[in-house]
UniProtKB/TrEMBL annotation:
The keyword Transmembrane helix does not apply. Keywords: Disulfide bond, Glycoprotein, Immunoglobulin domain, Signal. It comes from the Eukaryota. Residues 21-97, 117-189 form the Ig-like domain. The keyword Disulfide bond applies. InterPro entries: Ig-like_dom, Ig-like_dom_sf, Ig-like_fold, Ig_sub, Ig_sub2, IgSF_CEA-related. It comes from Thamnophis sirtalis. Pfam families: Ig_2, Ig_3. This is Carcinoembryonic antigen-related cell adhesion molecule 5-like. PROSITE patterns: IG_LIKE (PS50835).
Amino acid sequence: HDFFPPTYDFPVFDPDGPEHPVISPLQQVYNEHSTLNLYCSAVCNPPAKFSWYLNGELLARQNESRLAQRLTLKNAGNYTCRVDNVETGLSKAVGLEISIREAINHISVRDPGKIVENSTTYLNCTASGFNVSYYWLKGKQRLQAGARLSLSSNGQNLSLSKTSRQDSGLYTCWGINSFSNNSFNYTLNVFCKSGSALGRL
């Protein structure tokens, strides 16, 4: 009998690619202190080597298709995924522009100077952040506009007409937006016209 050795079909290694890479998700606006998760994919044989860049600077993590980091304002800019095929020597890249909405930071109340009874007191609160609105507390009570108290449309500015001894105390300004808040305490002292303080809480 004739003997025919078995034949085997060995796969042919055919380096190819990379095809044009894709970043997901395509979300471009994030909140400060949130976590950025980006994924990069590309058809490539052998599997591609991935590199991530921010504004042209190579990020610390390399050779991973996923990029994850907690966001600060410094992390805004153009994120680029570069894919390299070590066999073909070819590379391709894709970018995504990311902007970051600032959380409420650096809140303060401007010192109105010496407050004398029967004068009008102006308290101005400022905070850095995205789309900030404000409200005020005296002690633990939220303040509302009334006969002697006026508030600006976004709550940033508070004015008290005919300031009296009862207006002395601890005022708290809160700055808020859809994803963060911050506060600042200010103690208001009302003085008699002769110069002595009328009291505080």
